[in-house]
């Protein structure tokens, strides 16, 4: 897939001229700069990873609050026989024994592979032939904040750069008219914006949060002023460009000054390109149906899934969709029934996204990841709920370089601990980086006197799930 | 694999399995007498120890790990750095068992878990009382310490500050004073030639931004250009140092280093309404030129210092907000509250801020690169585990407590007594209601009233500050006194008790035998001891860095092996010695540095120099810099005439009685203000959107230098953000009101934004531009009296977007 190329700089300059509003001398000066062939300092220039990658970009789907593995992807027949007399790790924030809680939804086979998925995800179940399910995920903390931070940054307590920032740092971007790392987050998850922050990596790599609605990226639109003539912004940029050129010449053509001049050109293009990327009026009704999206809807998870595909097409490296914020999420302590509307919200859109990517050939080099911060306890919490459970949970991958239609690892018969092939979040990160062409131990950044990396001092690539 | 292929496991198996995995057995057995025990040891225990433990934990090991030996009973009982390996009779309390069970971070043997049978055998053996026939003689030879202090002291940073005499230079005319001699000697040795001096306008703009974070006014520029006396620049430096804006600028630098925030950093990020007092104290301390050694004393041990007045006492208490501001973690309010992480944040920041050492690395293990052992870390830990930190509130315990009232001590006592009496009344009333079997709602309401009263702060100003004491009952390992090593940084694994002392490599001073309390005052003394090789060096390096954009040591928070070596070690020592000799006066350091020739160099290029020293590491020119986030915002406000120069007070936080923040709904706010950016409310967890966009400080950890990113989102901010448009409107209105003549007005607009008049061609381009815009607006149907104003607003945005506006030469 080729990402759409932006307009050339020359065209931008011409458009800035806005008819004859710019002085001819200004145009000549700006055009001369274009032809000088000076290298500009560009930390987002596309770069090759350590070895040929399977995946060129990532769509990272995050379900906030801790999705129950035994109610979704991890079939535990034993638990279905729970009669209240048997106990297992319990609810709340504790591991004290509690009566086991029966999963609420029946499991059925999906796809040719026959992987069992509960009735909570009927559409996703049909896509299991494309999915590599991991039922042996494990993490180290049973608080939302720390576990959410960790699945995003590899660090439980201190903020560190997010996965998307590492990827942007490692690969740069092929479309400078859009950010390299975009996060759709109608509400912020636990740990807030830290989960998509660049932290100590240069700020180019910070996740740009898109809030579904009229202004997805801040300041894309000039404030409306009554009576302002059109084209005034181009004129302003034009004169600033002239002053900047003169300043650049007085200051030895310094690359930081030149780079800043470029950012205004990119910003100018973003004003038109970003809204175009967000404009779905040209998508067919059939495509919208695939996602379960109503025309005119710019808020739903379905809209976000379609946006993920559109941004992936346009060369964005890392697109994260966060399905819910730090309240009203999957944290079903009192009643597992709360899982149902949350599942309904994402089931069809994600299935649609996988099918759409596949038919466009994009699944070959796009890695789709679905995960959560931890699982839920086999024992009962509250009246009919489950507590936090970091010891084991489920996640899945689809697309580029991943074995499709398999289940990797397993939990014990009640879903309390990992039974085989544990995949710690550090292993998970190492594997994703591997698919993207990176040796996780070598993708480092020097900060505060030492080399930092996403996987801290741990992480093993899970070769069993690689094609 | 597919789940369906998993063999079926019957119910009894999984119950047993789950039980074994989930429940920790804590049964204790009685000692089993002699021969059986010995036989059990020989058959079931010794082979396991020999096979799986001896390679690291016996006298035959190449290197004895963790100073632990398991090849004799006595050695096992004595244990290693983490404490005794076995507690006979009590397997659950024996570190050996915890380790082999792999139930925490301490996992032994590291290469793979023992089998369930082997673990059960070890447990049985300890339950028996750990009978052991092995030779009880303990070799007197102690394992060699991992950290070699004598070797470590050879590193430059740990050697004492020398007072080097200035080097000889070939060009004796160039240097103004000794600082220049140190610089020039290096330049000459490297074959680099310093560029010419900066022009006077550039120099004034540079100095004004450097010391105040604001641009010079056109009047200040004119006055400086007119002053032809040789002391003209010295006068400027004195004027700027006397300006209250100086403290706001340099106080902000300090707040970066101490990772200041107005919230606590726990899961719900509770606000700290009193924190601003510390911020303002820092700003005032810089403005007063408080000697740096006193500045340190107040922040580490203000509460323990003698005070001459209530006011001074209050200031001293507020200063310890430095310690109190340490980050809070998690959401538990009980024994699981991770105080050890808050203390780590204190030690980590204290190490970086005052000593340029990454002490935090030694929490879980001896420092990998620097001569700092885990024992050095826990020797410092004792000072802070003997210190009571204020409680900022947290999801499960939402009211602040343990803050320090700032009233006079007598009034305070009275208030406390009346408060206690009132609370007792409440309790009595509740008890009566309960005894009378009153309706539930009535009891609930009475309880609520009591809670409400209890949450009311004392009728005194409060400081978010510390005192000697412990954080009981929440703190698991709380005690006033020395602390134990926590193996792998986990309080669950207490090891050896370490006396409170200074790191060995810095002298290892210990507290007097009869020392009472936390000992923080002594710690402050050691930090500011003239023999301490780091404190003065680290601070003069920071001052240098904020003037030149790069420190003599390019890693100001890390003077260790992983940091950078000083480019000019003799200059660093010269400055450090001067600093101490001049009574630790920071303002004197500014004067010394700014009145040197090297500070006054231009930013010119030089092709020959660029080839061998592209980044001007050796300072053959002055580095051009982009304004930091605060200066960009403050300048926009100032030139538009919109800046409120008053010092900031408390933030408009919601009333504490309404605090209901949880990790699900954390505290989150952005408060608008036209005061200087140092007064913006900054949250630990969520960055202020403007500061985040323009590379503001990291509120999570110490920021020793700001990065400078250049992004399209910043450009979009300057192009389209309503804040910028608002300042442009005010700027235009101000100019039109101040200057009727257009040419003079253009001149003034350039003076205000760039610190210089326009060139002829710029003036013409600007005039033409204004005409074009007016022409264009004329067709838009806007009232005629609006045309000129709109054109000037447009010009204002052009100037704000220009590189020259945000770069300082």
List the helices and strands and how they pair.
The complex is a heterodimer of chains A (467) and B (809).
Chain A: H1 9-17, H2 24-35, E1 57-63, H3 77-80, E2 87-89, E3 97-99, E4 107-110, E5 115-118, H4 122-125, E6 131-138, H5 144-153, H6 163-171, E7 181-184, E8 208-210, H7 232-250, H8 255-278, H9 285-291, H10 301-313, E9 318-322, H11 339-359, E10 366-372, E11 375-381, E12 385-389, E13 393-399, E14 406-408, E15 410-411, E16 418-420, E17 423-424, H12 425-435, E18 444-447, E19 450-453
Parallel strand pairs in A: 1-9, 1-10, 6-14, 6-17, 7-8, 7-9
Antiparallel strand pairs in A: 2-3, 4-5, 6-13, 10-13, 11-12, 15-16, 18-19
Helix pairs in contact in A: 1-2, 1-7, 2-7, 7-8, 9-11, 10-11
Chain B: H1 11-22, H2 34-52, H3 73-78, H4 95-101, H5 116-127, H6 149-152, H7 178-190, H8 200-212, H9 218-226, H10 232-242, H11 244-257, H12 275-287, H13 292-301, H14 310-319, H15 321-324, H16 339-355, H17 374-385, E1 387-388, E2 404-405, H18 409-435, H19 440-455, E3 462-463, E4 467-468, E5 483-486, E6 494-498, H20 520-527, H21 535-548, H22 569-581, H23 586-594, H24 607-612, E7 625-626, H25 629-639, H26 689-693, H27 712-720, H28 722-738, H29 742-754, H30 760-778, H31 784-801, H32 803-806, E8 807-808
For this entry, give a set of tags.
heterodimer, A: 467 residues, alpha/beta, Alkaline Phosphatase, subunit A, 9-stranded mixed beta sheet, two-stranded antiparallel ribbon, 12 helices, 19 strands, 31% helix, globular, disordered N terminus, B: 809 residues, mainly alpha, 32 helices, 3% strand
Q: What percent of residues of chain B are in strands?
A: under 5%
Question: Which descriptor suits the 3D outline of chain A?
Answer: globular
Biggest β-sheet description of chain A:
9 strands, mixed
Q: What's the gyration radius of chain A in Å?
A: 24 Å
Helix share, percent of chain B: 40-55%
Q: How would you describe the oligomerization state of the chains in this entry?
A: heterodimer
Q: How is the CATH topology of chain A named?
A: Alkaline Phosphatase, subunit A
Helix content of chain A: 25-40%
What class, by secondary structure content of chain A?
alpha/beta
Spans of chain B of at least 5 consecutive residues whose pLDDT stays below 50 are: 1-33, 136-145, 473-477
Radius of gyration computed on alpha carbons of chain B: 33 Å
């Amino acid at each position: 897939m080729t990402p759409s190329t932006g307009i050339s700089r020359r065209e931008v300059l011409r458009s800035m001229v806005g008819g004859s509003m710019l002085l001819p001398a200004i145009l000549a000066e700006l055009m001369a700069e274009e032809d000088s062939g000076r290298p500009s300092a560009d930390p987002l220039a596309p770069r090759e990873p350590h070895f040929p990658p399977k995946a060129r970009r990532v769509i990272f789907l995050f379900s906030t609050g801790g999705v129950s593995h035994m109610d979704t992807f991890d079939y535990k027949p034993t638990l279905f026989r729970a009669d209240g007399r048997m106990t297992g790790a319990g609810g709340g924030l504790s591991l004290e024994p509690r009566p086991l809680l029966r999963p609420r939804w029946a499991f059925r086979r999906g796809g040719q592979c026959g992987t069992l998925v509960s009735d909570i995800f009927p559409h996703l179940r049909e896509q299991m032939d494309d999915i590599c399910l991991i039922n042996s995920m494990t993490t180290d903390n049973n608080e939302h904040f720390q576990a959410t931070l960790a699945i995003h940054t590899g660090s439980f307590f201190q903020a560190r750069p997010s996965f998307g920032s590492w990827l942007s740092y490692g690969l740069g971007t092929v479309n400078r008219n859009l950010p390299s790392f975009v996060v759709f987050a109608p509400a912020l998850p636990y740990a807030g914006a830290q989960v998509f922050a660049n932290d100590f990596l240069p700020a180019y790599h910070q996740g740009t949060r898109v809030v579904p609605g009229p202004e997805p990226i801040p300041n894309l639109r000039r404030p409306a002023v009554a009576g302002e003539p059109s084209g005034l912004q181009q004129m302003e940029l034009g004169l600033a460009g002239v002053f900047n050129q003169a300043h650049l010449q007085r200051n030895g053509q310094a690359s930081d000054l030149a780079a800043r001049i470029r950012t205004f050109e990119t910003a100018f293009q973003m004003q038109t390109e970003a809204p175009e990327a967000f404009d779905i009026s040209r998508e067919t009704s059939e495509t919208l149906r695939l996602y379960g999206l109503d025309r005119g809807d710019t808020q739903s998870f379905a809209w976000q899934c379609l946006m993920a595909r559109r941004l992936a097409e346009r060369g964005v490296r890392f697109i994260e969709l966060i399905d819910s914020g730090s309240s009203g999420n999957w944290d079903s302590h009192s009643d597992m029934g709360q899982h149902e509307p949350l599942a309904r919200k994402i089931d069809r859109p994600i299935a649609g996204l996988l099918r759409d990517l596949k038919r466009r050939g994009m699944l070959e080099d796009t890695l789709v990841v679905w995960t959560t911060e931890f699982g839920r306890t086999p024992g009962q919490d509250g009246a009919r709920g489950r507590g936090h459970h970091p010891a084991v949970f489920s996640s899945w991958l689809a697309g580029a370089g991943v074995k499709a239609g398999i289940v990797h690892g397993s939990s014990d018969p009640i879903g309390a601990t990992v039974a085989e092939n544990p995949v710690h979040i550090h292993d998970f990160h190492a594997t994703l980086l591997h698919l993207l062409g990176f040796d996780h131990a070598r993708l480092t950044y020097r900060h505060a006197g030492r080399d930092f990396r996403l996987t801290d001092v741990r992480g093993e690539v899970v070769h069993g799930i690689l094609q | 694999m597919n789940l369906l292929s998993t063999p079926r496991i019957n119910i009894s198996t999984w119950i047993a399995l789950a039980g074994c995995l989930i429940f920790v057995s804590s049964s204790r057995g009685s000692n089993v007498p002699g021969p059986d025990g010995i036989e059990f040891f020989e058959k079931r225990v010794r082979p396991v120890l020999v096979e799986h433990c001896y390679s690291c934990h016996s006298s035959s090991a190449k290197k004895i790990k963790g100073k632990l030996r398991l090849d004799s009973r006595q050695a096992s009982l004595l244990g290693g750095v983490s404490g005794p390996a076995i507690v006979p009779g009590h397997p659950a309390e024996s570190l050996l068992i915890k380790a082999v069970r792999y139930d925490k971070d301490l996992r032994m043997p590291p290469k793979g878990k023992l089998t369930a049978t082997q673990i059960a055998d070890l447990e049985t053996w300890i339950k028996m009382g750990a009978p052991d026939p092995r030779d009880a003689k303990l070799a007197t030879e102690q394992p060699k310490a991992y950290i070699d202090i004598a070797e470590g002291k050879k590193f430059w940073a740990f050697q004492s500050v020398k007072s080097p005499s200035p080097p000889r230079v070939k060009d004796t005319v160039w240097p103004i004073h000794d600082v220049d001699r140190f610089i020039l000697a290096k330049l000459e040795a490297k074959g680099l030639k310093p560029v010419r001096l900066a022009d006077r306008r550039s120099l004034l703009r540079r100095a004004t931004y450097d010391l105040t974070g604001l641009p010079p006014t056109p009047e200040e520029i004119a006055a400086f250009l007119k002053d032809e006396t040789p002391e003209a620049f010295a006068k400027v430096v004195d004027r700027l140092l006397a300006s209250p804006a100086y403290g706001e600028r340099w106080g902000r630098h300090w707040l970066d280093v101490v990772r200041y925030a107005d919230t606590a950093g726990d899961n719900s990020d509770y606000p700290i309404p009193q924190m601003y007092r510390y911020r303002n104290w820092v700003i005032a301390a810089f403005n007063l030129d408080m000697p740096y050694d006193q500045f340190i004393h107040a922040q580490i041990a203000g509460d323990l210092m003698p005070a001459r007045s209530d006011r001074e006492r209050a200031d001293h208490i507020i200063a310890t907000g430095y310690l109190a501001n340490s980050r809070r973690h998690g959401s538990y309010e009980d024994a699981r509250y991770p105080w050890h992480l808050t203390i780590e944040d204190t030690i980590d920041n204290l190490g970086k801020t005052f000593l340029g050492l990454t002490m935090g690395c030694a929490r879980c293990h001896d420092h990998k690169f620097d001569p700092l052992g885990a024992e050095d870390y826990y020797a410092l830990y004792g000072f802070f585990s003997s210190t009571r930190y204020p409680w900022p509130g947290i999801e499960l315990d939402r009211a602040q407590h343990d803050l320090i009232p700032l009233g006079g001590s007598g009034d305070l006592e009275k208030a406390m007594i009346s408060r206690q009496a009132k609370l007792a009344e409440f309790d009595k009333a509740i008890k009566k209601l309960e005894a009378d079997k009153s309706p539930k709602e009535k009891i609930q309401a009475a309880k609520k009233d009591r809670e409400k009263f209890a949450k009311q702060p004392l009728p005194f100003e409060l400081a978010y500050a510390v005192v000697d004491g412990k954080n009981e009952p929440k703190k698991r390992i709380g005690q006033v006194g020395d602390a134990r090593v926590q193996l792998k940084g986990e309080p669950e694994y207490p090891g050896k008790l370490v006396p409170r002392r200074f790191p060995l490599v810095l002298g290892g001073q210990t507290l007097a035998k009869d020392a009472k309390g936390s000992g923080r005052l002594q710690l402050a003394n050691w930090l500011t001891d003239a023999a301490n090789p780091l404190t003065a060096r680290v601070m003069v390096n920071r001052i240098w860095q904020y003037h030149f954009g790069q420190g003599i040591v390019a890693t100001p928070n890390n003077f260790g092996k992983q940091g950078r070596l000083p480019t000019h070690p003799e200059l660093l020592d010269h400055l450090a010695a001067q600093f101490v000799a001049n009574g630790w006066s920071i303002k004197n350091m500014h004067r010394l540095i700014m009145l040197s020739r090297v500070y006054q160099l231009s930013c010119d290029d030089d092709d020959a120099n660029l080839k061998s020293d592209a980044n001007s590491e050796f300072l053959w020119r002055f580095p051009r810099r982009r304004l930091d986030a605060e200066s960009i915002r403050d300048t926009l406000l100032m030139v538009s005439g919109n800046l409120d120069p008053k010092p900031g007070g408390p933030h408009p936080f919601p009333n504490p009685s309404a605090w209901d923040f949880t990790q699900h709904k954390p505290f989150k706010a952005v408060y608008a203000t036209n005061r200087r950016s140092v007064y913006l409310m900054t949250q630990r967890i969520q960055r202020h959107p403007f500061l985040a966009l323009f590379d503001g400080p990291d509120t999570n950890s110490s920021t020793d230098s700001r990065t400078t990113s250049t992004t399209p989102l910043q450009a979009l901010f300057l192009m389209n953000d309503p804040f910028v448009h608002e300042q442009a409107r005010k700027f235009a209105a101000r100019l039109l009101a101040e200057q009727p003549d257009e040419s003079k007005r253009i001149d003034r607009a350039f003076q205000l934004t760039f610190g210089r008049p326009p060139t002829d061609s710029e003036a013409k381009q600007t005039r033409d531009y204004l005409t074009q815009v007016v022409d264009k607006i004329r067709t838009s149907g806007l009232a005629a009296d609006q045309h000129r104003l709109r054109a000037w607003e447009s010009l204002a945005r052009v100037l704000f977007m220009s590189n020259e506006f945000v770069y300082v030469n």
